[in-house]
Design the sequence.
């Protein structure tokens, strides 16, 4: 359960005098390797004074230790993790922070947090807890990059509205829309036209004086070519509801004098006909339960011509 939690981007603090070396020799767990802590030996030595590291967020901290002191494991960082506390004598690592860059973060200790004796600031449990929570992003990261587009599936020649949802600390942006027009933009919420069928990537780069972040989405925009399918009769109008379809049932209403529907055809994005209904009665229910969630084209053929519209199934 803890491994799954971390792999979903969780944050985890874990401490134990025997957990990093001795326990892993006898009863290994799947979560311990995610801390990137290497257990070196059992009973590394009595904990006395625990000092922070000048290059870490524990710089300037020093605590007398008054917690459990039996068989303390000797540990060291590996695979990019780093030491944040060392025991003064004998000298060895006791607390290690880990940010592998894949979403989750961990802190592992062979000392008890409750065994750290408060001294002058910043060497207090309260300040250390604040540093741990800040490392775990509990207070929120002021830097983030994100965007959304509406809609993400369109017909050839239609437009997509993009929205920059990035942190307000960023003062400039550059959009890249390969296959779209325009192909680049510095606007916050640009409108882009796609004139060819296909799936298109989108990239947003946002910058501030001290930071740059890039977010890319591959195949984010789908453009459908309905040449040969969409030949709307000018005298017809179609209402399709609900759209998107949520419960597998929709209704089609054709407005036009003396209109009789002879066939309803539904096509997937490759142009394949996936459903056909003959002699459909106007404004009656049509079952779409056989179709998977996605975007389709629905073509209604009448005695006055045909009309095609896009439909989404959730």
Sequence:
């Amino acid at each position: 359960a803890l491994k799954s939690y971390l792999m979903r981007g969780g944050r985890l603090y874990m401490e134990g005098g025997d957990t990093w070396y001795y326990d892993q020799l006898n009863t290994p767990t799947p979560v311990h390797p995610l801390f990137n802590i290497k257990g070196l030996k059992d009973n590394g030595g009595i904990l006395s004074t625990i000092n922070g590291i000048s290059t870490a967020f524990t710089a300037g901290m020093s605590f007398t230790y008054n917690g459990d002191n039996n068989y303390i494991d000797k540990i060291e960082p590996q695979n990019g993790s780093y030491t944040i506390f060392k025991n003064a004598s004998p000298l060895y690592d006791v607390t290690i922070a880990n940010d592998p860059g894949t979403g989750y973060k961990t802190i592992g200790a062979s000392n008890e947090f409750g065994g750290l004796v408060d001294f002058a600031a910043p060497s207090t449990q309260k300040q250390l807890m604040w540093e741990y929570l800040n490392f775990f992003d509990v207070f929120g990261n002021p830097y983030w990059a994100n965007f959304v587009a509406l809609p993400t599936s369109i017909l050839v020649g239609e437009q997509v509205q993009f929205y920059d949802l990035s942190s307000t600390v960023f003062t400039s942006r550059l959009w890249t829309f390969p296959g779209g027009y325009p192909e680049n933009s510095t606007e916050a919420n640009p409108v882009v036209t796609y004139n060819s069928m296909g799936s298109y990537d989108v990239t947003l780069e946002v910058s501030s004086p001290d930071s740059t972040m890039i977010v890319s989405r591959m195949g984010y925009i789908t453009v459908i070519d309905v040449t040969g399918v969409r030949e709307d009769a000018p005298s017809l109008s179609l209402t399709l509801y609900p759209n998107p379809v949520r419960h597998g049932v929709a209704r089609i209403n054709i407005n036009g004098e003396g209109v009789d529907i002879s066939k309803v055809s539904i096509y997937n994005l490759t142009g394949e006909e996936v459903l056909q209904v003959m002699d459909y009665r106007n404004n009656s229910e049509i079952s779409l339960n056989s179709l998977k969630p996605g975007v389709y084209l629905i073509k209604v053929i009448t005695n006055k011509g045909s009309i095609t519209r896009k439909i989404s199934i959730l």
